[in-house]
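ok, trying the design again with the full structure, not the truncated one.
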């Protein structure tokens, strides 16, 4: 008889305060332990920040529609995320949607920052 044990669910509430980028970095590294390129992408896209210095959800510098630690573009992804019951302005939902996106498209949605994260993960560039 085989017993399956569900993996421990990793939640940002265990890494408080999430306004500290070091705590967000630990959370991201644990959450994406199985897909390390996504941790590299978070480092490049947001420097592991979900919030800006005013406490607002981080918006992209080049594209103001990008949100949070994984810089999810709300023009392209808000409707799908909401359909999945996810709010990309929430840290846990932001990373959950990034995982969903990666499982379907690989690193393609983050190719604009690949010059940064590809130096850590050449294999992702080779896949495209």
């Amino acid at each position: 008889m085989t017993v399956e044990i569900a993996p421990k669910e990793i939640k940002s509430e265990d890494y408080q305060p999430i306004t500290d980028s070091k705590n967000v970095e630990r959370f991201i590294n644990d959450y994406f332990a199985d897909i390390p390129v996504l941790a590299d992408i978070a480092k490049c896209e947001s420097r592991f920040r979900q919030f800006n210095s005013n406490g607002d959800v981080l918006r992209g510098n080049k594209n103001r529609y990008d949100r949070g630690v994984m810089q999810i573009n709300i023009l392209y992804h808000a409707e799908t995320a909401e359909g999945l019951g996810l709010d990309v302005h929430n840290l846990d939902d932001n990373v959950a949607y990034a995982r969903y996106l990666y499982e379907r498209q690989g690193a393609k949605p983050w190719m604009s920052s690949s010059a940064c994260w590809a130096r850590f993960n050449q294999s992702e560039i080779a896949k495209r």
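Keeping the full-length input from now on. Strands lie at 66-67, 72-73.
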